[in-house]
Amino acid sequence: MKRAFAGLRHHTLVAALLFLLLLVLLYNLGGWGLVETSEARYAEISREMLLSGDWLYPHLLGIQHFHKPPITYMISAAGMGLFGVNEFGVRFFLQISLLAQALLVYRIARELFQSRKIAFTALVIYVTLPAVLIAARNLTTDSFLATFELLAIWAWMKYKPSKKPSWLYLFYLALALAFLTKGPVGLIFPVLVVLGYRVKGANARPSLMHHLVGLSLFLILSASWYVYLMWQNRQFVDYFLLNHIVKRYTSPETFGRSQPWWFYLAFIPVLSLPWSAMLLLHLPALRKLVPEQKRLFVLWLLVPLLFFSFSSSKLILYVLPMLAGIALLISWLLYQLTANELRIISRITFVYLGLVVLGLVLLRFLPLGYTVPLPLVLFAVLMLGVLYLLWRYMRQSIQQVVAAVLAFTIFLIPLSTHILGANAVQMNSSRAVANLIREENLQGRTIVVYDRLLPSLAFALNKDIVSVSDQHHSLKRETQFETGNAWRNHLLRIQDRQDSTRLRELLNSQAVLVSKRELPANRNWLRSQLLHSRQVGVWMVYY
Fold first, then answer.
1. Which residues are within 8 A (CB) of 203 and not within 5 positions of it... i.e. 6 or more apart?
2. Quick one: how far is CA 541 from the chain centroid?
3. pTM more than 0.85
4. Pair type for strands 446-450 and 511-516
5. What are the beta bridge partners of residue 64?
6. Which residues contact 359 (CB under 8 A, 6 or more apart)?
7. Using CA of residue 419, residue 421, residue 424, residue 429, what is the dihedral sign?
8. How far is 74 from 156, CA to CA, in rounded Å?
């Protein structure tokens, strides 16, 4: 009875924490504009999908865009279907995905370590990792992908000792959803965990029939979108297999995301602070892991690190599931340390958090170009006060460290939304341009953007725009899959005589021209019929 009551109390604590996190994550979620380029691109594709009702052929600014499968766009479009075409709607399910990941990390830790304390600590560590929070506040495929990958990992860990078919089918279903979110890369982490996870005393034999059925389910679902498109157009065979698998991994020029080989070695620790420092300071303690756990973490952490480090295309969020493994490892590690080691960790953690808060306060006073309103400075001072109380009155232990970082994160999330909203230009957002267009009652006119791909403006105005291609690489669009000429209403190439003539007609008939900085001298003819101009940050608006 006592154990059952303790278990109920523990589950209530987990539920309460997740509910608190939900409230904090949803606060002012639409308070800042879409960030160019990735978030704006995903959001605009989702908007066009919602408005067109075409769920199989993603479009970006009126042109088909097949860089990713449609799951992320579908989920984001569903958010806007619930809450409207706005930043809150398009980001809503990202927050749900973060909570789902947190719960899955908790469940995986329970399976792996058979300890409620370690599992709860792993949950807190995961939701307080800076890279994890960035993934949930900036729309890309990575947060949804990590959710499906962690779901597959948890399902396999539940299946392995029991051999219940329902867990096996959930595993294959989650794999299929991961594949439909980002392609073959979605299989890397779950497959490595399958290879590495061992359970002592699991005597039940796996059913070959259930594996065949589950594998068939995976193949049918995961390949459905790709096979359909390749059946419709044979060009997709080379496009998917060569451009988006081989070239993405081997050619740094293909997607412009080349980074040095040490990119992940440098940035994973930085974007995992302060927890990564605890791990690095106590690496020798990892020898206490049992052989089965060592094998698992080598395959979960080191093998993907090598794989992604050799890839020519690198972004920190590509390795988001690795951070779940790091959270699990650190949560276990903390319970292996002595009281003296925990006191040292506690001091370092509080100093680090205090310095970060002071840095936020100093942003208002240093000439760095960032705007921090006075109420936010007072809020940061309150954060310092809470940290002091935790330091002063809570016993120096794992609970004190966990409470401090969690409190810091709960304060930081709402604070960051207002800082982002007050610094739209620095955040590479065009919301201020959209606001100017509305203030001047220009939203009914044709919006023309010179030599930049600017999906955030189309999203903010909830209308199609016309892009004018001159020199910039972002407007080298993939038009090979277009079957008609409708796309030419959305993209005009200034060097093309027919497009240039059409552009003159557009600008002579009630249009708004948006340019990053002043127009080049040889393109001033574009504004010859536009008598007014306003500057908004780096953007010039002619009307």
1. none
2. 31
3. yes
4. parallel
5. 59
6. none
7. positive
8. 26
